[in-house]
Design brief:
Layout: H1 3-25, H2 33-44, H3 50-57, H4 61-73, E1 77-82, E2 85-93, H5 98-115, H6 121-140, H7 149-166
Helix pairs in contact: 1-5, 3-4
Length: 167
């Protein structure tokens, strides 16, 4: 099978297994993966508003709002007024969450270390480089390049029929 036929499956499956390993390793931390994702995003993008965070994490704004409510109740996040938009709130991490972020980082590093076991430093660098290129390519992949599903299915059916006829 050509690599492009199973590459998407492998990427998705590795991501799933990484999430599962992280979840298992972080069980004692009393936060959900979704809450960890919010904290991790805010760690790197502190002061973002909820709309930006929701879009970046690919969650509905109301779902994110519930996560923020819980994190705020734990004392990990505060909502501050946005100076440029009275309706918006900026999200800020508190000092209380800093030890949890360090634990999350350590857990994440251990999970990735386990995933990369048996790979050389050069192989790891090549993997990161290839995934970085793929990510940039897919970030550019917008609505203007999305094909009509019905037309794609019809074309695939024609190709399949031609292959059958040729055999």
């Amino acid at each position: 099978m050509p690599p492009e036929k199973h590459l998407g499956f492998l990427i998705n499956d590795v991501a799933r297994l990484l999430r599962r390993a992280f979840d298992q390793a972080a069980q004692g931390c009393a936060l959900t993966r979704a809450q960890w994702q919010v904290l991790a995003f805010l760690y790197h993008n502190e002061g973002s508003n909820q709309a930006v965070v929701a879009e970046a994490l690919d969650v509905e704004p109301i779902t994110l709002s519930r996560h923020i409510d819980r994190l705020e109740a734990l004392g990990y996040v505060v909502r501050l007024p946005d100076p440029s938009d009275r309706r918006a709130r900026r999200l800020q991490l508190t000092e209380t969450v800093k030890p949890h972020l360090q634990a999350m980082k350590a857990i994440g590093n251990e999970v990735v270390k386990s995933a990369l076991e048996g790979m050389s430093e050069t192989e790891t660098e090549q993997l990161v480089s290839a995934l970085t290129v793929m990510r940039a390519n897919m970030a550019r992949y917008g609505a203007e390049t999305v094909s009509d599903c019905a037309a794609t299915v019809a074309a695939a059916a024609r190709i399949q029929q031609e292959e059958k006829s040729a055999s």
